[in-house]
Design brief:
The chain is an alpha+beta fold and 334 residues long. It contains 10 helices and 12 strands. The strands form 3 sheets. The chain has a 5-stranded antiparallel sheet with strand order 2-1-5-4-3, with helices on both faces. It has a 5-stranded mixed sheet with strand order 7-9-10-12-11. Strand 1 and strand 2 form a beta hairpin. The longest helix has 36 residues. The protein is elongated, with a radius of gyration of 28 Å.
Length: 334
Protein backbone atom coordinates (compact mmCIF):
# COMPACT_ATOMS: atom_id res chain seq x y z
CA UNK A 1 0.00 0.00 0.00
CA UNK A 2 2.88 2.35 0.74
CA UNK A 3 4.31 1.75 -2.74
CA UNK A 4 0.92 2.39 -4.39
CA UNK A 5 0.44 5.56 -2.40
CA UNK A 6 3.92 6.75 -3.36
CA UNK A 7 3.21 6.00 -7.02
CA UNK A 8 0.09 8.16 -6.99
CA UNK A 9 2.01 10.89 -5.20
CA UNK A 10 4.83 10.86 -7.75
CA UNK A 11 2.33 11.31 -10.60
CA UNK A 12 0.85 14.35 -8.91
CA UNK A 13 4.24 15.79 -7.97
CA UNK A 14 5.51 15.55 -11.54
CA UNK A 15 2.45 17.23 -13.07
CA UNK A 16 4.65 20.16 -14.15
CA UNK A 17 7.56 17.97 -15.21
CA UNK A 18 11.05 17.48 -13.83
CA UNK A 19 11.62 21.23 -13.52
CA UNK A 20 8.31 21.83 -11.72
CA UNK A 21 7.75 22.76 -8.11
CA UNK A 22 6.79 19.17 -7.17
CA UNK A 23 9.98 17.50 -8.42
CA UNK A 24 11.67 17.67 -5.01
CA UNK A 25 8.67 16.03 -3.33
CA UNK A 26 8.76 13.26 -5.95
CA UNK A 27 12.47 12.76 -5.24
CA UNK A 28 11.77 12.42 -1.51
CA UNK A 29 9.10 9.77 -2.14
CA UNK A 30 11.42 7.77 -4.43
CA UNK A 31 14.34 8.00 -1.99
CA UNK A 32 12.24 6.59 0.87
CA UNK A 33 11.04 3.68 -1.29
CA UNK A 34 14.54 2.77 -2.45
CA UNK A 35 16.19 3.34 0.91
CA UNK A 36 18.83 5.46 -0.84
CA UNK A 37 21.25 7.87 0.84
CA UNK A 38 20.37 10.47 -1.76
CA UNK A 39 18.25 10.70 -4.93
CA UNK A 40 17.96 13.38 -7.56
CA UNK A 41 15.81 14.11 -10.59
CA UNK A 42 17.52 16.06 -13.34
CA UNK A 43 15.90 17.74 -16.34
CA UNK A 44 17.52 18.21 -19.75
CA UNK A 45 19.11 21.46 -18.60
CA UNK A 46 20.86 19.62 -15.78
CA UNK A 47 18.82 21.26 -12.99
CA UNK A 48 18.68 18.96 -9.97
CA UNK A 49 15.96 18.28 -7.41
CA UNK A 50 17.77 16.47 -4.57
CA UNK A 51 16.39 14.49 -1.67
CA UNK A 52 18.69 13.25 1.07
CA UNK A 53 22.45 13.72 1.17
CA UNK A 54 23.85 14.77 -2.24
CA UNK A 55 26.97 13.16 -3.65
CA UNK A 56 29.91 15.21 -4.89
CA UNK A 57 28.76 17.95 -7.29
CA UNK A 58 31.49 17.36 -9.87
CA UNK A 59 30.96 13.60 -9.94
CA UNK A 60 27.17 13.93 -10.21
CA UNK A 61 27.40 16.52 -13.00
CA UNK A 62 29.73 14.31 -15.02
CA UNK A 63 27.43 11.34 -14.50
CA UNK A 64 24.34 13.29 -15.66
CA UNK A 65 26.17 14.63 -18.70
CA UNK A 66 27.15 11.09 -19.65
CA UNK A 67 23.56 9.84 -19.31
CA UNK A 68 22.04 12.72 -21.27
CA UNK A 69 24.55 12.44 -24.10
CA UNK A 70 24.52 8.66 -24.42
CA UNK A 71 20.85 8.21 -23.41
CA UNK A 72 21.99 5.17 -21.42
CA UNK A 73 22.71 4.24 -17.81
CA UNK A 74 26.00 5.31 -16.30
CA UNK A 75 27.97 4.78 -13.11
CA UNK A 76 28.05 1.94 -10.58
CA UNK A 77 26.95 1.66 -6.94
CA UNK A 78 27.07 3.64 -4.76
CA UNK A 79 26.38 6.28 -7.45
CA UNK A 80 24.37 5.40 -10.56
CA UNK A 81 22.17 7.27 -13.02
CA UNK A 82 19.43 6.15 -15.41
CA UNK A 83 17.93 8.08 -18.33
CA UNK A 84 14.27 9.12 -18.10
CA UNK A 85 12.08 8.99 -21.20
CA UNK A 86 8.62 10.47 -21.80
CA UNK A 87 6.66 9.49 -24.88
CA UNK A 88 9.80 7.93 -26.31
CA UNK A 89 11.88 11.11 -25.91
CA UNK A 90 14.69 11.76 -23.45
CA UNK A 91 13.33 13.94 -20.62
CA UNK A 92 16.07 13.82 -17.97
CA UNK A 93 17.91 11.53 -15.59
CA UNK A 94 17.46 9.77 -12.26
CA UNK A 95 20.51 9.78 -9.95
CA UNK A 96 20.69 7.44 -6.94
CA UNK A 97 23.42 7.56 -4.29
CA UNK A 98 23.82 4.68 -1.83
CA UNK A 99 23.83 0.88 -1.74
CA UNK A 100 20.86 0.37 -4.08
CA UNK A 101 20.80 -2.45 -6.63
CA UNK A 102 21.01 -1.26 -10.26
CA UNK A 103 17.89 -3.33 -11.08
CA UNK A 104 15.94 -1.34 -8.50
CA UNK A 105 17.21 1.92 -9.96
CA UNK A 106 16.05 0.82 -13.42
CA UNK A 107 12.58 0.02 -12.09
CA UNK A 108 12.44 3.38 -10.34
CA UNK A 109 13.42 5.13 -13.58
CA UNK A 110 10.67 3.29 -15.45
CA UNK A 111 8.23 4.32 -12.72
CA UNK A 112 9.16 8.00 -13.06
CA UNK A 113 8.98 7.75 -16.85
CA UNK A 114 5.43 6.36 -16.62
CA UNK A 115 4.49 9.27 -14.37
CA UNK A 116 5.91 11.76 -16.88
CA UNK A 117 4.01 10.07 -19.71
CA UNK A 118 0.75 10.31 -17.81
CA UNK A 119 1.32 13.94 -16.89
CA UNK A 120 2.05 14.83 -20.50
CA UNK A 121 -1.16 13.10 -21.60
CA UNK A 122 -3.16 15.05 -19.02
CA UNK A 123 -1.54 18.29 -20.15
CA UNK A 124 -2.33 17.48 -23.79
CA UNK A 125 -5.95 16.77 -22.87
CA UNK A 126 -6.21 20.10 -21.06
CA UNK A 127 -4.69 21.92 -24.03
CA UNK A 128 -7.15 20.18 -26.35
CA UNK A 129 -10.07 21.25 -24.16
CA UNK A 130 -8.85 24.85 -24.23
CA UNK A 131 -8.47 24.69 -28.02
CA UNK A 132 -12.04 23.42 -28.33
CA UNK A 133 -13.28 26.30 -26.18
CA UNK A 134 -11.43 28.76 -28.43
CA UNK A 135 -13.06 27.08 -31.43
CA UNK A 136 -16.50 27.55 -29.89
CA UNK A 137 -15.76 31.23 -29.27
CA UNK A 138 -14.83 31.62 -32.93
CA UNK A 139 -17.95 29.83 -34.14
CA UNK A 140 -20.37 32.79 -34.18
CA UNK A 141 -22.22 32.37 -37.46
CA UNK A 142 -21.46 35.23 -39.91
CA UNK A 143 -24.88 34.51 -41.41
CA UNK A 144 -26.58 35.15 -38.06
CA UNK A 145 -24.52 38.30 -37.38
CA UNK A 146 -25.37 39.71 -40.83
CA UNK A 147 -29.07 38.97 -40.45
CA UNK A 148 -29.26 40.40 -36.95
CA UNK A 149 -27.53 43.64 -37.93
CA UNK A 150 -29.68 43.93 -41.05
CA UNK A 151 -32.87 43.64 -38.97
CA UNK A 152 -31.60 46.19 -36.44
CA UNK A 153 -30.68 48.67 -39.16
CA UNK A 154 -34.12 48.29 -40.77
CA UNK A 155 -35.76 49.28 -37.47
CA UNK A 156 -33.65 52.38 -36.81
CA UNK A 157 -36.07 54.67 -38.66
CA UNK A 158 -39.43 53.02 -37.95
CA UNK A 159 -38.88 51.63 -34.42
CA UNK A 160 -35.82 53.35 -32.94
CA UNK A 161 -36.52 52.18 -29.37
CA UNK A 162 -36.70 48.54 -30.42
CA UNK A 163 -33.60 48.94 -32.60
CA UNK A 164 -31.75 50.34 -29.57
CA UNK A 165 -32.85 47.42 -27.39
CA UNK A 166 -31.81 44.87 -29.99
CA UNK A 167 -28.42 46.53 -30.41
CA UNK A 168 -27.92 46.28 -26.65
CA UNK A 169 -28.87 42.60 -26.80
CA UNK A 170 -26.46 42.07 -29.68
CA UNK A 171 -23.67 43.73 -27.69
CA UNK A 172 -24.42 41.47 -24.68
CA UNK A 173 -24.42 38.41 -26.92
CA UNK A 174 -21.09 39.16 -28.56
CA UNK A 175 -19.46 40.19 -25.26
CA UNK A 176 -20.41 36.92 -23.58
CA UNK A 177 -19.43 34.79 -26.59
CA UNK A 178 -16.09 36.44 -27.31
CA UNK A 179 -14.87 37.82 -23.99
CA UNK A 180 -12.11 36.05 -22.07
CA UNK A 181 -13.98 34.13 -19.38
CA UNK A 182 -12.65 31.47 -17.06
CA UNK A 183 -13.26 27.80 -17.69
CA UNK A 184 -16.60 27.82 -15.86
CA UNK A 185 -19.69 29.95 -15.43
CA UNK A 186 -23.13 29.38 -13.89
CA UNK A 187 -26.37 28.01 -15.29
CA UNK A 188 -27.83 31.46 -14.66
CA UNK A 189 -25.23 33.15 -16.89
CA UNK A 190 -25.60 30.53 -19.62
CA UNK A 191 -29.40 30.91 -19.62
CA UNK A 192 -29.06 34.69 -19.79
CA UNK A 193 -26.84 34.32 -22.84
CA UNK A 194 -29.35 31.89 -24.38
CA UNK A 195 -32.27 34.27 -23.82
CA UNK A 196 -30.32 37.12 -25.43
CA UNK A 197 -29.51 34.95 -28.42
CA UNK A 198 -33.15 33.88 -28.75
CA UNK A 199 -34.35 37.51 -28.66
CA UNK A 200 -32.08 38.28 -31.60
CA UNK A 201 -33.14 35.15 -33.49
CA UNK A 202 -36.82 36.01 -32.99
CA UNK A 203 -36.14 39.45 -34.44
CA UNK A 204 -34.60 37.75 -37.48
CA UNK A 205 -37.06 34.85 -37.92
CA UNK A 206 -40.21 36.55 -36.68
CA UNK A 207 -43.21 34.26 -36.19
CA UNK A 208 -41.29 31.32 -37.60
CA UNK A 209 -39.56 30.88 -34.26
CA UNK A 210 -41.52 29.98 -31.12
CA UNK A 211 -39.62 29.69 -27.87
CA UNK A 212 -40.20 28.25 -24.40
CA UNK A 213 -37.54 28.71 -21.70
CA UNK A 214 -37.92 27.52 -18.12
CA UNK A 215 -35.30 26.91 -15.46
CA UNK A 216 -35.74 25.85 -11.83
CA UNK A 217 -34.29 28.32 -9.29
CA UNK A 218 -32.34 25.59 -7.48
CA UNK A 219 -30.01 25.03 -10.45
CA UNK A 220 -29.28 28.67 -11.31
CA UNK A 221 -26.09 28.66 -9.23
CA UNK A 222 -24.75 25.36 -10.58
CA UNK A 223 -21.30 25.75 -12.15
CA UNK A 224 -20.98 24.51 -15.73
CA UNK A 225 -18.29 24.76 -18.42
CA UNK A 226 -18.43 28.10 -20.21
CA UNK A 227 -20.32 28.13 -23.54
CA UNK A 228 -21.73 24.64 -23.04
CA UNK A 229 -25.40 25.44 -23.77
CA UNK A 230 -25.45 28.15 -26.44
CA UNK A 231 -24.13 25.85 -29.24
CA UNK A 232 -26.99 23.44 -28.50
CA UNK A 233 -29.62 26.17 -28.86
CA UNK A 234 -27.98 27.49 -32.03
CA UNK A 235 -27.96 23.98 -33.45
CA UNK A 236 -31.67 23.54 -32.63
CA UNK A 237 -32.59 26.75 -34.45
CA UNK A 238 -30.34 26.08 -37.42
CA UNK A 239 -31.53 22.54 -38.06
CA UNK A 240 -34.93 22.54 -36.38
CA UNK A 241 -36.38 25.89 -37.49
CA UNK A 242 -34.38 27.53 -40.28
CA UNK A 243 -34.31 24.29 -42.29
CA UNK A 244 -38.12 24.07 -42.44
CA UNK A 245 -40.72 26.14 -44.28
CA UNK A 246 -43.17 26.78 -41.43
CA UNK A 247 -42.88 27.77 -37.80
CA UNK A 248 -40.83 25.77 -35.33
CA UNK A 249 -40.67 25.44 -31.56
CA UNK A 250 -37.46 25.43 -29.48
CA UNK A 251 -37.74 24.51 -25.80
CA UNK A 252 -34.97 24.95 -23.25
CA UNK A 253 -35.33 23.70 -19.68
CA UNK A 254 -33.16 23.21 -16.61
CA UNK A 255 -34.07 21.33 -13.44
CA UNK A 256 -32.62 19.34 -10.58
CA UNK A 257 -32.79 15.56 -10.51
CA UNK A 258 -31.32 14.37 -7.23
CA UNK A 259 -27.67 15.43 -7.17
CA UNK A 260 -27.65 16.25 -10.89
CA UNK A 261 -28.61 19.28 -12.95
CA UNK A 262 -30.41 18.27 -16.15
CA UNK A 263 -30.71 20.72 -19.04
CA UNK A 264 -32.67 19.89 -22.20
CA UNK A 265 -32.71 21.65 -25.56
CA UNK A 266 -35.48 20.38 -27.83
CA UNK A 267 -36.84 21.28 -31.25
CA UNK A 268 -39.75 19.92 -33.29
CA UNK A 269 -37.87 19.90 -36.57
CA UNK A 270 -37.17 17.11 -39.02
CA UNK A 271 -34.93 15.13 -36.66
CA UNK A 272 -32.34 12.74 -38.01
CA UNK A 273 -31.26 9.14 -38.10
CA UNK A 274 -29.77 8.14 -34.70
CA UNK A 275 -26.70 6.82 -36.50
CA UNK A 276 -26.06 10.30 -37.87
CA UNK A 277 -26.41 11.80 -34.38
CA UNK A 278 -23.87 9.28 -33.12
CA UNK A 279 -21.46 10.27 -35.90
CA UNK A 280 -21.88 13.96 -35.07
CA UNK A 281 -21.01 13.37 -31.41
CA UNK A 282 -17.98 11.37 -32.51
CA UNK A 283 -16.80 14.37 -34.55
CA UNK A 284 -17.62 12.81 -37.92
CA UNK A 285 -20.51 15.13 -38.78
CA UNK A 286 -20.69 18.10 -41.12
CA UNK A 287 -18.52 21.15 -40.34
CA UNK A 288 -21.54 23.12 -39.05
CA UNK A 289 -22.14 20.49 -36.35
CA UNK A 290 -18.69 20.66 -34.77
CA UNK A 291 -20.11 22.55 -31.78
CA UNK A 292 -21.98 19.48 -30.51
CA UNK A 293 -18.88 17.29 -30.61
CA UNK A 294 -16.83 19.98 -28.84
CA UNK A 295 -19.39 20.36 -26.07
CA UNK A 296 -19.63 16.58 -25.61
CA UNK A 297 -15.83 16.20 -25.31
CA UNK A 298 -15.56 19.10 -22.87
CA UNK A 299 -18.26 17.67 -20.62
CA UNK A 300 -16.58 14.26 -20.56
CA UNK A 301 -13.20 15.86 -19.89
CA UNK A 302 -14.54 17.78 -16.88
CA UNK A 303 -16.96 15.26 -15.36
CA UNK A 304 -15.84 11.87 -16.66
CA UNK A 305 -16.94 9.35 -19.27
CA UNK A 306 -20.40 8.85 -17.72
CA UNK A 307 -21.34 12.44 -18.55
CA UNK A 308 -21.65 14.19 -21.89
CA UNK A 309 -24.46 14.85 -24.34
CA UNK A 310 -27.37 12.49 -24.93
CA UNK A 311 -29.15 13.01 -28.25
CA UNK A 312 -32.68 11.64 -28.66
CA UNK A 313 -33.88 11.87 -32.25
CA UNK A 314 -35.49 10.07 -35.16
CA UNK A 315 -36.54 11.12 -38.67
CA UNK A 316 -39.66 13.31 -38.40
CA UNK A 317 -39.56 13.33 -34.58
CA UNK A 318 -37.47 16.40 -33.82
CA UNK A 319 -34.30 16.39 -31.71
CA UNK A 320 -33.78 16.50 -27.95
CA UNK A 321 -30.30 17.09 -26.53
CA UNK A 322 -29.82 16.40 -22.82
CA UNK A 323 -26.99 17.75 -20.67
CA UNK A 324 -26.57 16.11 -17.25
CA UNK A 325 -23.92 17.46 -14.88
CA UNK A 326 -23.36 17.11 -11.12
CA UNK A 327 -24.80 19.98 -9.12
CA UNK A 328 -21.60 19.97 -7.05
CA UNK A 329 -18.26 18.94 -8.50
CA UNK A 330 -14.89 19.52 -6.76
CA UNK A 331 -12.75 21.99 -8.70
CA UNK A 332 -15.64 23.20 -10.88
CA UNK A 333 -16.55 26.73 -9.87
CA UNK A 334 -17.21 29.98 -11.75
Amino acid sequence: MAALSAARGVVGDLRDGLAGSGARRAARRMRRLLGARGLALADLAGSLAWAGRPAGDTEVKALIDAVLHAEAASGRPPLVAEPLFANGELAGALVVAGPVRPASVRKAAAWVADALDRCRLETSAEQAAQAELRALRAEISPHFVYNALTVISSLVGSEPDRARELMTDFADYTRYSLARHGDYTTVSEEFHAIETYLILQRAVLGERLRVQVRVAPEVLGVAVPYLVLQPLVENAIRHGVEARAGAGLVQVSGEAEGNDCVICVEDDGAGMDPARAKAILAGRGSPDSVGLANVDRRLRHVYGAWYGLVVETAPGAGTRVVVRVPRFQPGVMP
